[in-house]
Design a protein that fits this description.
Number of helices: 21
CATH class of the largest domain: Alpha Beta
CATH architecture of the largest domain: 3-Layer(aba) Sandwich
Distance between the termini: 65 Å
Shape: globular
Radius of gyration: 23 Å
Oligomer: single chain
CATH superfamily of the largest domain: Vaccinia Virus protein VP39
Number of domains: 3
Structural class: alpha/beta
Length: about 450
Amino acid sequence: MTPGACLQAAVDILDSLDAPPSAGAIPADRFLASYFRSRRYMGSGDRAAVREHVYEVLRGRAGLDWWLARQYMPATSRCRVIAAQLLEGEDAPATDVDTLAALFNGEGYNPAPLNEAERALSRALGGCALHHDDQPPLVTANCPSWLGPSLSRAFGDGMAEEMAAFNHMAPLDLRINPLRTGRDAARECLTRQGAACRPTPYSPWGLRAKDHVTLSRLSAYTKGLVEVQDEGSQLVALLVDAKPGMNVADYCAGTGGKTLVLAAAMAEQGKLTACDVARKRMVGLPSRLKRAGIGNVTLHVLDQSERPKKRGGSWAKRHGGSFDRVLVDVPCSGSGAWRRNPDARWRLNAESVADHATLQQDILAHAARLVKTGGRLVYATCSILCEENEDVVTNFLETHGEFTTIPVSNVWVDTITLMEGGADFSDMKESGEWLRLSPARHGCDGFFVAIMERWK
């Protein structure tokens, strides 16, 4: 592909990502994976160039739109790509006007030639930087204005730093399978296979790749020594404190990343049930379990014939009071993963956040029935919004007096700190009652964890 064709491909992809939710829009990372799978003719360099153009626009969208508005230009995918090429970003040098015009020449698969308005735009933006002193804070943060109060509530004076971190690419984190290897051995194996990595700072089972690699080609992955998993997700699962011989439920298992951690922590001793309302989410879990050498997991699809508010309630009622640990990693806004899907913040709205919070409260109430006296209920999200985190847990505790909060700091000391390579909780610089993870403070995706115990 020519450089111009890569730009046109980026425009086409951005048009598709801008489709409204009702039109079936999917996150950027999943869309790109599907796009490249259906275009095997694209070389690795072409794919990297297209991906870079797409994410450059997504991570600078608010600033690009601000500049376009100043020049009275529409915020189309084509105009955003043009502006992104011309404006100098933190990690992206600017393209000069003449070079850009040469790329937009209409030949072959290259973009159509610049029209007069686009040429005027090019002249106006040439030599400018993406970030400007006149931009409002939320433009610099690359966020919709309606999210301002929620982000200020979540991060306070640290909002600017936190949101800046969300505009950088996430690293590739791996988790070792302790049933088959140790961290040092896995690291040596990966290095020999060309995937150099280093230990993650907090998770004792984590490795962080120095570069993005295709893991499916590595025997360390195909033989079940490592899995892809963000360090924050690893920490969430480890804080469940699942032990050998316990009866444990992963109530919203999804693709099963945390299920695998729980099974490893249990050393295949005890019973682990992975639940979800969507069979298709768990379709790949059996093969992941087989690759990891795990055989003590039962998969259960919750009753989809029940109304959404009641879904899973019947199964929870039948198995009430029988589980030592229940992890409830609820569906959420996914705002903690904005580094991977920067487009998602533009599809989010206040109504969907409220809808998520309502659903989260219902799911948490159903899952609570499963916990035996003395057992623990672990609530988690990959959200940074208090509306889905502290507010949901506070509401639950107010209406479920049989549960009390266990400070995450206490559980951390009893689990992660005692593991070889585990960090002290003081390294997290958190208050201790609940745990908030974020890219700026911890280098991982945004997560929230609250641990509760049934005392009667």
